[in-house]
Structure of Ribonuclease P protein component:
Amino acid sequence: MSGSADPAPPHAGAPAGRLKKRRDFLRAASRGKRAARPGLVLQALATEPGTVRLGFTVTKKVGNAVVRNRARRRLKEAARLTLPGLGLDGWDLVLIGRDATGARPFGQLIGDLRGALKQAGVLP
């Protein structure tokens, strides 16, 4: 057995990458489509085929660090459960937490995500 282990393969259908740089978030905000729902706001920017990148943000207006982190974790989980089965290709998606994100029932949060994807034209 070799001394170097290969990294674990990504989950099947997992998003290709993450948006982490400010310029990527700003590009999605300025050029992308926007869809607002009670539990979240979605910014979607069409990119080259073969990539799907996700970004998550929750502003300080939502609450203290504990509240913001809870909202961000819920958005990540909703995306993890929803996006792989949709066959998305060629998008930068930014999910923005709102005041209601942390307390909204999880089923409704997933419904908000699906509705926002349809409204923004990501899903047919």
In short: The longest strand covers residues 40-46. The chain is about 35% helix and 20% strand. Residues 100 and 124 are 27 Å apart (CA to CA).
